[in-house]
Amino acid sequence: MLVAAPVMGIGGVILAVEQDVALSWIVFAIVPVLLAIMLLIVRKLVPLYREGQGLVDRINSVLREQILGTAVIRAFVRQPFEMKRFEAANDALTRNNLRSARIVAAMLPLVMTVVNLSSAGVVWLGGHRIIAGDMELGALTAFIAYIMQILLAIMMAMYVLSTAPRAAVSAERVTEVLNTESEITQPGNTAGGMVARPRGLKACASTMSFSPTREPKHQ
Predict the structure, then answer these.
(1) In a domain, 37, yes or no
(2) Residue 116, Cβ density class (10 Å: 0-12 exposed, 13-18 middle, ≥19 buried)
(3) How confident is the model over 34-68, as pLDDT tens digits?
(4) How high does pLDDT run on average in the chain?
(5) 41-69 in b/e burial notation, b at 16+ Cβ within 10 A?
C-alpha cells in the first residue's frame, strides 16, 4: 500500500488536470485537507499508543506479582487490595484503548465527508460547464472517476498511517529490549584458555615427593 497509494494519487492528479483544468482546483483544495486530517490523527495516536504500551506493561506486572505471590496474598488476606490494583490498571488500559479507537473510528467519517463534498462540488460545477458547452458529459464522468481514484489513494495511505504509530511504538520497545545489557556476565578467560583467577587470591605452589615403599616379607 505504501507504494500503490502514492502512484495512484499522483497519477489521478495528473489525469484529472489533463481532463479539465478548470475543475482541477477542487483536487488541489481537497488533497491538503485530507493530508491535514491524516497528520492530525497520527499526531494524536502516537502518544496514546506509547502510553498504552506502558499500561500493558503495568497490567502484566500486576498479574505476574499476583500469580507469584498467591500464597502470600492468601496468608495476609490481601485479595480485596489486589483486586483493586488489577481493576485500576485494567481501567486505565481500557480508557486508553477507547480513546485511540474513537480517534481511528472518526477518521473514516471525516474522510467520507470531504469525499462527498468534493464529489458534489465537481458535479455541480461540471453541470454548469456542460450547460455552457465548455465540457462534455464523458469528461465529467472521467473527472469524477479520477477524483475517486485520488481519494482512494489517500484513504489507503491513511489506513497504513493509522497503524504505523502502533508499529513505531512496538519497534521502540523491541529496540529497548535488544539494547538492554544483561546483568549476568560470563567470567573472562585468560590467553591460555583458563578461567581468570578472582581478585585477592594468590596461587600457592606445592611440591610432592614419593618414596619407594618396602614390600612386606612373607614368612
Answers:
(1) yes
(2) exposed
(3) 888 888 888 888 888 888 888 888 898 899 988 99
(4) 79
(5) bbebbeebbebbbebeebbeebeeebeee
Number of separate domains in the chain = 1
pTM, full prediction? 0.65
CA neighbor of 161 nearest in space, from 28, 25, 44, 51: 44
Asked whether the CA dihedral 60, 65, 66, 67 is positive or negative, the reply is positive
Q: Confirm whether 96 is domain-assigned.
A: yes
Q: Which tens digits make up the pLDDT trace of 150-196?
A: 878 877 877 777 777 777 777 877 887 788 887 776 665 544 444 44
Task: Show the domain range for 55.
Answer: 4-173
Q: What is the pLDDT of residues 14-32, one digit of tens each?
A: 888 888 888 888 888 888 8
Structural domain contains residue 111 = yes
Identify the CATH number of the domain in which residue 107 sits.
1.20.1560.10
Q: What is the C-alpha to C-alpha distance for residues 200 and 126, in angstroms, rounded to an integer?
A: 92
Residue type, 77: V
Grid coordinates representing 134 are 465548455
Give the list of residues 6+ apart from residue 24 with CB closer than 8 angstroms, or none.
16, 17
